[in-house]
Amino acid sequence: MSITNKALIAMWFEEVWNKGRVEAIDGMMAPNCVIHGLGPQAQDIQEFKRFQAAYRDAFPDITITVDQTVAEDDLVAVRWSGAATHRGHGLGFPATNLPAQFSGMVFARIENGKLVEGWNNFDKLGMLQQLGLVALPA
Description:
The protein is α+β, with helices and mostly antiparallel strands. It has four helices and five strands; from the N terminus they run ααβαββββα. The N and C termini lie far apart (49 Å).
């Protein structure tokens, strides 16, 4: 089971993020999937599609690399890194045309070959700093 779940997660990052294939979301995510950590409240599949579209608009050249995957039973943990250039307005502010590198982690629960729940954490602050949108006090 773990090998299949690891393969699903690898395919998720490649198809949904690197290739931007929206139709792959429906193929890999259960209709009742719950996603945590991408906004102030949990998201459903339709909200996730809007999130993905906004990020792909902001970062059309996004590349996500799966750095490490660990699986046990129905859970898969992933440590990933990404790079992109901020070229769109999808995040609610004008494109900076600056490159950014960022990283994150996700725990995904999989049932019957589909993602049913996900817990996400990524370095959004670091990304915003690289884009010149946030400056920390000296």
